[in-house]
User: What shape does this take?
Amino acid sequence: MLTGDTLAGAAEPGHDAETTDAETPDVETPDAETPDAETPDAETPDAGGSDALVAALMEVERHVGEAGWDQPARGFALVRTDELIVAEPELAEKLSLRSSDQGMPPGALTAVESEDMFPDPQADPLGTLMTVGWPQTVFGCAVALERTFIPADAEPDLPDDDAEAAEFVANHPRRQDIRIVAAADRAGNSHAVARLASRPGELLAGSDLVPGLAAALAHTLT
Assistant: This one.
């Protein structure tokens, strides 16, 4: 996992990707009440999207998970490993990156964390994504973010005031914390995984797990 904005170009928060009238999409929270029957094993996520995108996504999820919970949103550029090795041979050697000529699958991707992608931790990550654009050297991108939600049967009790609603959710005895990691690429593939803090050994996965977030990520690549 690489950290920094010098490789493959940084996300450009000032770039409005093809300025459109599209509204900021919501992050759909996967249903966590009854996940046992459909929860794939963490080592074998659903087929969907390209193998390279899924492999990079799983590496990002593992990397982010090592830092525990209560993290701000984090963004990553996904760069073709073969191109990265050509562009940064010394760094590739230092990191022991292998090319397709050395046995890696063709089209393999390396994740590069963009530390400036979400400069304001208090801002809505989806709103920020709608103002981000990636250079052509970036083939895909991924984002990791956390959400807290309550069961659907408790939602009618939510206060109308946003601040009061946030406090209500944060203090609810049945609240659930979930980490979502989603990725998209320029070939039109997307994939996502989600992990509940209360069930750390289980991983929800699928190409249509959070379509709104996937669409926002794809928007940054246009």
User: Anything to note?
Assistant: The chain has one domain: 2-14+35-219. The helical segments are 51-65, 81-87, 89-94, 125-129, 162-171, 211-219. Residues 5-27, 31-48 have pLDDT under 50 and may be disordered.
